[in-house]
Structures are given as C-alpha cells and as structure tokens.
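Submission checklist for the structure archive. All mandatory fields must be present; incomplete records are returned to the submitter.

[x] Identifier: TonB-dependent receptor
[x] Organism: Pseudoduganella danionis
[x] Residue count: 739
[x] Sequence attached
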Amino acid sequence: MSKLIPYACMALLGASNAIAQNELGGSASKPLLGPDGKPVQQVNVTGGRASDLDERRNSVAGKQIFSREELDRNGDSNLGDVLKRLPGVTLGGRPGRGGDVRMRGMGNGYTQVLLNGERPPAGFSMESLSPDQVERVEIMRGPVAEHSAQAIAGTINIVLRDGYQQRDKQLKLTDTIEQGRHAPNVSLTAPGKVGQLTYLLSASLFENLPHDNTLTYNRDTRADGVVLKDQNVLDQSRRTAYGVHFTPRLSYKFEGGDTLNFQPFIMSFRSHGDARSDLGQNTGLVPPALQQPPEYVAALSKTHYSGTFMRGFGNWIHKLEGASKLDVKFGFGHGSSDNDTQRAQYDGAGKLQDSFSDTSSVREHSFNSGGKYTTPLGRNHGLAAGWDVELGHRVETKVSVDQNGVPQFAESGDNLTADSRRLALYAQDEWDISSQWSGYGGLRWEGIRTTSSRATGDINNSSSVFSPLLHAVYRIPGREKDQLRASLTRSYKAANVQDLIALPSIARLNSATRPDRTGNPNLKPELATGLDLAYEHYVGRSGIISATGFVRNIDNLIRRVVQQEQTSTGLRWVSTPQNIGHARTKGIELEAKFQLQELLQQGPAIDLRSNYSRFWSSVDDIPGPNNHLDSQPKQTANLGMDYRMKALPLTLGANMNWTAPTLVQSSLTQEIGTSRKRSFDVYGLWKIDSLQQLRISANNLMAESALGSNIVTTNGLSQAAYTSNQTYVAWSVKYELKF
C-alpha cells in the first residue's frame, strides 16, 4: 500500500494533465453550435462571493479555502476528521482519536491554528468542535503580516458560522456508534434580522463515550545483555464526556455605512471516567538475584474534569474618504478548568500499597485589541498597516500527594501566577503589478513577554521577532489557467507558557520512557527562514493540479531531553524542553482534484481528489540516520472520490488517508517510532427532498492498531517501551432538516 498510493496520486496528476490538453484543443472543448451552425457565445453568471477556487487563485499569498461543501461532504462529527483529508494536513495520534493538527508533517506547535483570525482560548480542542459551527477553513502555507508569524509549517484559520446567504433554519441530528456505544449530537442554526441588526444563532449539544485499551511492553537491558526488567502493562479506560457549544453572531449596519460585528464562542465540557492498569512481571529473562518486586500489580483510578472556555470576537469597520477603511478589532477570553484524579495501587494479594491524589485548577483571562487601516494606492494596489495587543493572566494550582499526605513535588499546593503580554506591529503592500505579475510585501514585528510568580521566586522571559515576508504570483502568458507562486518568509515558533513555567507533571510509573515533565524558563523562540515555490494549473470550474516545493532552515530548535534528576521525592526521570541547535526540513507536495466529466464528456459524475507529500528533515546536533524533526513522517497521501448518481438522489463517496511510519532519533539517547496510519472512510448521502437529507458514513474501516516504540539508552542501560493502541470503526448517521 505504501508504494501504491504515491503512484496512484501521480496517475491522477497525469489524468489532470490530460484535462489540460483537452482544454487546449481536445474534443471536450468544442464550442456549442446554434441552429445556424455558428458557435453560440456562452456566458457564465455567478452571484455572491467568489468561489473557493477563485479565492485561492486570486490570493497572492497562497490561501486555500474550504467552505460548507467540503465540511458537509462526509458528515463528520468533529472538525479533525474534516481536516485530515485536506491537502498537506495530518493529525497526530491514532485513527479515531485525533491529536494535534499538523501541516507538512510538523507537529509540536509548528502549525498555527487560529479561530476567526485570533488565537483560540487556552484548552480549546479542535477535536471537540463540530463542523456545523464552522463557516469555512482557510489554509495558508506561508505567513502573512496581518496574522502572527508563528507559522513555520503554515496557518489553519477556522472561521465560525457568519450566516452568509443563509435563509433557512437548519436542524442536524447525528448519532455516532463505536463498539456499540452511541455518541449523539444535536445542532441548530437559526438566522434572523431585526431592523439593521442581523444575527445567526448556532448551538450544538454532544455526548461521547470513548473506551480505550493500550498494551505496553517494558524491558530494561544492560549493555552486557542482562535483562533487569520485563513487564507487560495493560491500561484500560472508560469515559463519559458531554458538552455544549454556542456561537451566535451579531452584525449591525449603521446609516453611514459603518458595521459593528460581534461573535462569542462558548464551550462547556464535562467528563468523568475510570481506568484500570494491570502490571504483569515476566521473570523468565531476569536473573533471580536481580529480580525486583513490581511497582504494583493493579491500579484503579477515577477522574473528573470540567472546563468552560469563552472567547469573544468583535470588530468595527469604519469607512473613510475614498475607498479607505479602518477595521478595529477587540476581544476577550476566559477559561477555567478543574481536574481531579484519585489513584490506588494494589499488590498481588489485593492489598493496598499506596494511593495518590492529583488535583489541578487553572483560571485564565485574556484581552486583545487590534486594528487594520487599508487604503488603495491605485488600481489593484492596496496598502494595509495595523497592530495587535494581547494581555493574558493565568493562575494555576496543582496538588499532588500520596496516601500519607506527602507532596509529590516541591511546590505542590502553591499558586503559580503567570502574565503574558504580546505586541505586534505590521504593514503589508499587495499589488497587481501587471496582467502577469502580482506581488505582496509585508513586515511584522512581534514581541512577547512572560512573567510568572511562584514560591521559588519570579521568572521572566522576553523575546521579539522581526519577520519580512515576500510573496509573488506569475501568470504564464498565453496559458491563462497556469501560474507560478514564490514566497520568501521569516517565521518563528515561540515556547508556550507550559514549556516555560509549567508546574511538574508526575508520572506514576516513572522511568526513562515515562518521565515526569517540567518547564524551562530560559527557552528562546525557534526562528525559521523559508522558501516556497509552486506551480498551479486550474481545471474547469472546480479543478486544480499543483506541485509545491518548500524548505525551512530552523535555528534554536526546541526538543525535550530526558535525564535523571534529584527531586524532593528522590532520583527521578524528568523530561525538560531545551534549545538544541539548527535543523532543516524540505518537501514536495502534489495535489490534483477535478470532475471526471471534464476529462470525459460522457463520463460518470465523479469528483476525484488526491494529494501526496514527501518530506525530508535533519537536526545538526543529533547523529543520523534518523535525526528528523519530531514526529515528521517521510510521506503522507489522500485519495478520495464522490459519485453523484443520475437515477437516484444519492451521492456515494470514499476517502483513503495514509501516513508513513516514523522513526526519529529525538536526542543523543532517545529514539521514538510510530507505525503507519491508514484510515479508510466511506459515506452515502440521500437527498430526500429540497429540505431534508440523510447521511450515513463509516470512519476508520480498517481499524488497525497504532504501534509505537520509545527507547532510551544511557549510563549502560537501555529502557524500551513498545505500545499497541486499539482503534475502532465508527458508524455515523446524520439527518438534516431545513425549515
């Protein structure tokens, strides 16, 4: 399969090239003749905003738009399942459980995720966001000045529903079934207008019942081959999660032409669950004199979590003389979360060995303001300048004690207070220089300062980055559907608050492969210089073939380093983030999508789409051959199709998502591996009438187990952990009604 998918993608690219030949002179391009035998002039009339493909084609900085058609295509219950099918986007974690969103295979914060052009509230999870709450998704491979340049891999901007052209109320009822457990979702969208005020009310309720099983095999081996530890650990968890999303939008238009918009985003989430861990000690390979009693034989735990996150987005658009305008933004955020875990560990006779209590409370507040002034400098030439200010305040309390009330780290029970301040200034100039050339030049300066107060003293961290940004588009003369893109940019990745000043996270089965995690207040931002080159050919009304190449040189690369440290509870393995040096990544991305009827005039109504990416990366200060960036696979691919039947109001579709296995030398002592990921999804859409439709889909039909390895070799000892996580098929039924 790993060899067939790239070739299949290339075959689709070849088919798209055949389309191009037909457009230039094939039979499919013959003009329509009238009764007199003369060609009839054809005029295409469109209304509303530009199509997704037109916006992509006309964007100088290379923006891809995916609106409601793409979001509704498969009837997905969460946004992560939609994103994994988009060009160049992959998800970390195992199929069906999602994970961090990645562009160009780069996780760990290299991909910037925005909500309505702003950073989302702390604790926001894209996996919990219903596609029904989203108007469109914008993907930008290179940074632009008006958004933060914290986008080494690229930017994904999620634009919430704004009610554009929506006239009907929409009700959607969804039930997803996994292992016989139901996960219902109810979504309602209602537009309206009162005088000059227009509004869109959008809300959803959901429940989820995930069950997970993880089998881990641990083995510690000395350099002379003697086995010191040989264990199997089976972890099983059951969780009930439920929540509500509410995303209203209000827009008021004043008589003078000014517009005031406001859109809050509210998410409330609750979950409770229990888990069991069974540890089996294998004694066959361990010499009797070296055998140690197991840390426990069985462990039971219960967890309760509650979180509420709110973010308000607003802007006031004021028209000035001529075509100039001032767009002033404002916003606020609030987040609160509480987590309580009780764990009890037992020996082989069922006697309680010890117990632990872990509680944490986080409260965050933020305020942001910004603005953008735009003015035309001539025909198809515009200048924009603006600012962004963001203030954040975080209070975190974490308590971790054993059954005797003994703290598990030095600052257990103390408050950690953190304040962050971010200021950015930018200017950008976008200009259609000629019929062939369009250019974009931008400058952005961004400064970040983080201050924390804790029992051991205050910690300060300051950084600033100056980012010049250049983008250009060249439209090839005589080939109106072909164009070339080029970008030269400076971007960065700032350390997050948790990596800078986080309180320790304690691992109950502490080892080199399960270390405690802590922060590092001395981290510097990673800085990247990037070059992108792309060729695009537009096909018919909605097709495109493209090839993109990129390179990123990264300085001050941040990696987590695992080592033993003396702590308040003794010698423990601890993972700490550090700047380790220089890295480089490069890659090739291919995309092809088109309607088969544009290739074969009498062909079936099938839409085909594919994308394939190949990546290379290396870290200078770590020896090869596997000194790649964290979690970056060598290859990713997607193949998909949609078939609209003529005899029935039925559309059928399928999609195959594939990610190659990874093996990364993460540090001088640690090597991490993951297995391939294959996710095969299918759906059927029955349009009952103009107001009703029914969608049935199945995700992750292959249900392959996700395998992983983590090996740390230091001080003459190799500690290895091999994991296997089960995945499951998820069936979904969605009924949609307009009224």
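[x] Structure attached
Curator remark: The helical segments are 4-25, 52-58, 68-72, 79-83, 497-501. The chain has five helices and 35 strands.
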